[in-house]
Amino acid sequence: MLSPETLERYRQMTNMERLKLSLKMTDESIPALFRGTPEQVARRFEQIRQENDERNFNMLTAIARTRKSS
Hints:
Layout: H1 4-12, H2 15-33, H3 38-69
């Protein structure tokens, strides 16, 4: 959970500043994704895929629910 101060700082950033921050954080995190044995890397990416699939399913379910109620 982010502190109120951090959230406020993010709100005050321009879109370009937020994008630069996101890209910097991504660049710093990518090497860790490929650390470990091939099996560990494969499990890590499988877990990411599963989490993305679950998130997409939940979003599509919510969208479908709102369309039915309108």
